[in-house]
Design a protein that fits this description.
This protein has helices at about 35-50, 70-80, 100-115, 130-135, 145-165; strands spanning about 25-30, 55-60, 85-90, 120-130, 140, 145. The strands form two sheets. Strands 2-1-3-4 form a four-stranded parallel β-sheet, with helices on both faces. About 45% of the residues lie in helices and about 20% in strands. The termini are far apart. By secondary structure, it is an alpha/beta fold. The radius of gyration is 15 Å and the shape is globular. It has one domain: Rossmann fold (3-Layer(aba) Sandwich), CATH 3.40.50. Helix 3 links the parallel strand 3 (about 85-90) and strand 4 (about 120-130). Helix 1 (about 35-50) crosses helix 5 (about 145-165). The chain binds the ligand Nc1c(NC[C@H](O)[C@H](O)[C@H](O)CO)[nH]c(=O)[nH]c1=O and the ligand CC(=O)[C@@H](O)COP(=O)(O)O. The ligand Nc1c(NC[C@H](O)[C@H](O)[C@H](O)CO)[nH]c(=O)[nH]c1=O binds near residues 31, 64, 89, 92 and 102. Pathway: Cofactor biosynthesis; riboflavin biosynthesis; riboflavin from 2-hydroxy-3-oxobutyl phosphate and 5-amino-6-(D-ribitylamino)uracil: step 1/2. Belongs to the DMRL synthase family. Pfam families: DMRL_synthase. Keywords: Riboflavin biosynthesis, Transferase. It catalyses: (2S)-2-hydroxy-3-oxobutyl phosphate + 5-amino-6-(D-ribitylamino)uracil = 6,7-dimethyl-8-(1-D-ribityl)lumazine + phosphate + 2 H2O + H(+).
């Protein structure tokens, strides 16, 4: 189902693990700040609504979505007690193929961080044709992808905790 057929902000609270002891990082791209601030707020609010303590949420900013890769890598290394990280970005098609390379680079880079690192990195990067699509997905008619990302982060933090428990 495409985003068009669902609301990114809707979730069943009964399926969300207890997040009160989890610690999260959010790395936010400054490109398309109107959009990325909306995504950040959606994620932050969802964390608080699900019991995460404000003091357990750390935010770093990076210049653009391509820098999310390095920023998330350094956050993993610097705060190794984090339970999950969200990478927040907004890439909007321009006149050239740059959009394609930024989107592909960020996607592959964040994928690599999930393979190489031990802290899950959640992909909260909008890749839109125009800003109206971005607005619709960062608190507009389709909800907020930041909310969706926070829920994913909580679920992956719980999966990681369960895996470590079973590993002993
Ligand atoms: N056009 C967009 C960019 N471009 C900048 C790159 O992300 C990067 O910062 C630059 O190439 C220097 O390494 N970034 C976005 O996040 N969104 C865009 O629409
Ligand atoms: C995603 C981008 O880098 C893009 O917005 C840059 O715009 P342009 O392709 O017109 O240089």
């Amino acid at each position: 189902m495409a985003t068009e057929g669902k609301n990114l902000s809707e979730y069943d609270k009964n399926t969300i693990p207890n997040a009160k002891d989890f610690r999260f990082g959010i790395v936010v791209s400054e490109w398309n700040e109107e959009i990325t601030e909306g995504l950040f707020q959606g994620a932050f609010d969802a964390f608080i609504e699900n019991g995460v303590k404000k003091e357990n949420i750390v935010r770093w900013n990076v210049p653009g979505s391509f820098e999310l890769i390095y920023g998330c890598k350094k956050l993993q290394q610097t705060f190794d007690m984090l339970d999950a990280i969200i990478a927040v970005g907004s890439v909007i098609q321009g006149e050239t193929k740059h959009f394609d390379f930024v989107c592909e680079g960020v996607t592959q880079g964040i994928k690599d961080l999930n393979i190489q690192g031990d802290i899950p990195v959640i992909f909260c990067v909008l890749t839109d044709n125009h800003i109206e699509q971005s607005r619709a997905r960062s608190g507009g008619k389709h909800g907020n992808k930041g909310t969706e990302a926070a829920i994913a982060a909580i679920k992956m933090a719980q999966l990681r905790k369960d895996a470590d428990f079973y590993k002993g």
